[in-house]
Amino acid sequence: MSANHRPREGRPAIFVTGAASGIGRACAELFARRGWFVGVYDVDTDGAQAIAATLGKDNAVAGAIDVSDADAWQRALAEFWVHSGERLDVLFNNAGILAPGSFEAVPLARHEAMLAVNVKGIINGCHCAFHYLQRSPGSRVINMASATAIYGQPELVTYSATKFAVRGFTEGLDLEWSKFGIRVSDIWPSFVKTRMAASFAQIASARALGIRLDPEDVAAAVWACAVAKPRFHKTHWTVGLQASLLAFATRIAPSALSRQVVRYLAR
Ligand SMILES: NC(=O)c1ccc[n+]([C@@H]2O[C@H](COP(=O)([O-])OP(=O)(O)OC[C@H]3O[C@@H](n4cnc5c(N)ncnc54)[C@H](O)[C@@H]3O)[C@@H](O)[C@H]2O)c1
């Protein structure tokens, strides 16, 4: 399951879910390059092991996790804690799935799976990690939301709803856990060139906006969020011009106008 080793003492450590691919992988690579110890966890165990091997056995530990399973979280975090030298500076709840298409055409089981991974997975992660975060001074949680948390998206209705849930969860927990010194943020990228993007051809707004971000662009935002000074704390981090413009527009425009813009993009 994991390499039998201990890392150097005293360096920061990040636990990344969905780290075998796309954004999670890019983050694991970036943080390892910058001297952090990285937990590479994914339901794709072989993929996670392969990424960890490229990072080097002193820089990473890999293992299996299905984020919708609280017992799997307990096992993975306990293993990571030992290998990281008893640090959990950043919990990056990144794993997510997407089933595009007309709401009624997507099988109910796939709607439920998005809830289980995208929402329950993050609730599990924060609940199980609390004890470790509390023992890591200055720790933070970074949750993967999406630009679909800005305005509900046709052909991505449930996915978008799960990301709204991440947004609300992040805002509330950020306030609640400030008394422990644990900051909680989320990341809102627009469309990104990852394995997930294979299904974007079916989504009219993705065709209209294009897929302009690389996983490395999102990893750079996660890094900026992870190392931001406490006095510059920001709860929501947009990634890409499109997400920034949409977030700004929905703040200043009447909701009827936002609805028309999203409707136009999804035409
Ligand atoms: N690609 C985009 O356009 C985009 C945009 C905004 C947000 N996001 C979000 O970014 C995150 C990462 O997506 P990505 O684009 O890198 O996709 P990806 O498909 O390349 O990677 C997702 C990873 O999550 C893993 N995973 C899936 N279910 C899991 C589970 N139950 N437990 C643990 N791991 C699981 C997969 O094995 C995979 O390695 C997701 O939360 C996604 O919603 C993606």
UniProtKB/TrEMBL annotation:
Domain of life (superkingdom): Bacteria
Keyword Oxidoreductase set for record: yes
This protein's record includes keyword Oxidoreductase: yes
Pfam families reported for this sequence: adh_short
Record's keyword terms, sorted: Oxidoreductase
GO molecular function, one term: oxidoreductase activity
Entry-linked NCBIfam families: PRK08267.1 (NF006123)
Entry similarity comment: Belongs to the short-chain dehydrogenases/reductases (SDR) family.
Name of the protein in its database record: Short-chain dehydrogenase
Source species: Cupriavidus lacunae
